[in-house]
Write a structure and sequence with these properties.
447 residues; mainly alpha; 17 helices; 86% helix
């Protein structure tokens, strides 16, 4: 198993390594987002605008349910990659084993809280009774299945770290297929509406989480299950490396809750549904950016641990170049044909929603012109275990500048909300550039 990892991350030429890891990574992320896109189509076309709004209200809370698990999953992936680069397989396997237990415990804790307090949280957001009940049902299903479902994203990271790049891709393709099949059965055939949608996505996560565990249980991976040796130092390291992602999840979802409250007050359910359309259209592009960055973290972390700094620099250049190209294409696409994209998720009879979504999407598309740089920099800092830099970018992106832009763009009304993210990424990009220059000077002293 060591040969597989070394052959891919240490010996493969950097540009070839980029394509070897990035292409399956992008396919994996698109596979994961295909379900989300099809779910949006099913809910928007077959269930209705109220269900669309309810799902958008529940989604930030669903993602908060994933937050602690993601903290551990991402936080453990970085030190595992670095430990493997340092040839310390025992330490890598111990971090892996501890992480699995922590993720399940986190899922039980957050899931219980979300399940019990779902009605209070949703009603506090100001939704009417019909939309609120739909949102509560969606949230409770995600909370109940969370302890097992949460594992799937961490297992995807662990598969890639272990060199099973294509296996990770196939797992995500399978997961998307399962979820789509369940969606058709539960929503289109059995008419379970939003409950069927929640069940289909979370059952798909659970089934694939179990499948992903198989090579590790059978000892087919470089990472092995060990009797976990917890320590304060280990927990601190996991938390430090996972905190940028955790802060992004928490701060970003909290801001989404703020956005939902503002949207309800400024434009009602129609504005919330429009925001859902924007998020689904974004899912047409963001998987490529996430896939490009996330797929390279194990490779960059491994080479950082092995002190192969020239390879790190070359891999980083590949990531930044690719994300810039994808973002430019996304901006052109969304700015040019916003109505056609919005109509994928909105029934043609809902003309008010379609009109608002098309207008909002053209403004929203500007974010892709700026977003790529800060996001790629954040991913890079995560990979080389510089959590302070990554955390600064995360908090700036997810909460500080978005709240500031709400105030600055308030005179524009709803248009200010549609432009919020684009305005946020300008100062974030400047901060990221300064941090990268400082890191580049530090790297040069080691090369």
């Amino acid at each position: 198993m060591r040969d597989r990892t070394d052959r891919i991350y240490a010996e493969m030429p950097p540009v070839r390594l980029f394509f070897h890891a990035a292409i399956p990574g992008v396919i994996s992320m698109f596979a994961m987002s295909i379900y989300s896109i099809i779910e949006g189509i099913f809910v928007g076309q077959f269930v209705g605008g109220d269900a669309f709004a309810a799902m958008n209200l529940a989604m930030p809370l669903v993602m908060i349910n994933f937050a602690l698990a993601d903290l551990v999953g991402v936080g453990s992936s970085v030190p595992i990659s670095i430990a493997l680069g340092q040839k310390d397989e025992d330490q890598a396997s111990n971090i892996f084993s501890c992480s699995i237990l922590l993720i399940v415990a986190a899922g039980i804790t957050t899931g219980t809280i979300m399940f019990l307090f779902a009605p209070d949280i949703i009603h506090a957001m100001g939704a009417d009774d019909k939309v609120a009940q739909l949102a509560v049902n969606y949230l409770r299903i995600a909370a109940a299945l969370g302890p097992l479902a949460n594992l799937v994203f961490a297992m995807d990271n662990f598969l890639r770290i272990s060199g099973f790049v294509k296996g990770s891709m196939l797992l995500n393709l399978l997961m998307s297929g399962l979820q789509i099949g369940l969606l058709i059965l539960l929503v289109a055939v059995w008419k379970l509406e939003l409950v069927g949608s929640a069940l289909s996505v979370n059952l798909g996560f659970c089934i694939c989480a179990v499948i992903a565990l198989i090579p590790f249980i059978l000892g087919k991976s470089i990472l092995k299950f060990r009797k976990p040796r917890f320590s304060v130092q280990l927990l601190k390291r996991i938390i430090a490396c996972g905190s940028p992602n955790f802060l992004n999840n928490i701060a970003g979802r909290l801001f989404s809750l703020v956005m939902n409250v503002l949207l309800l007050r400024m434009g009602g359910t129609l504005a919330v549904s429009t925001f859902s359309v924007l998020m689904y259209c974004s899912d047409l592009v963001q998987p490529a950016l996430y896939g490009l960055c996330d797929s390279m973290q194990p490779a960059i972390g491994y080479n950082w641990g092995a002190t192969s700094y020239q390879r790190v620099k070359t891999l980083a250049k590949c990531v930044f170049s690719a994300t810039a190209i994808v973002s430019a294409l996304a901006f052109v696409l969304m700015f040019s044909i916003p109505r056609q994209l919005a109509s994928i998720f909105v029934d043609s009879s809902e003309t008010a929603l379609l009109d608002m979504s098309a207008h909002a999407l053209r403004l929203f598309s500007v974010e892709f012109f700026f977003w790529w740089f800060g996001f790629a920099a954040q991913s890079f800092f995560n990979a080389i275990q510089k959590p302070k830099y990554a955390a600064i970018l995360t908090v700036s992106t997810a909460i500080v500048f978005p709240l500031l832009m709400v105030w600055l763009l308030w005179p524009l009304g709803l248009d200010g909300l549609w432009l919020n993210q684009a305005a946020t990424y300008v100062p974030v990009g400047i901060i990221a550039f300064i941090m990268l220059r400082k890191t580049q000077r530090s790297l040069a002293s080691h090369m």
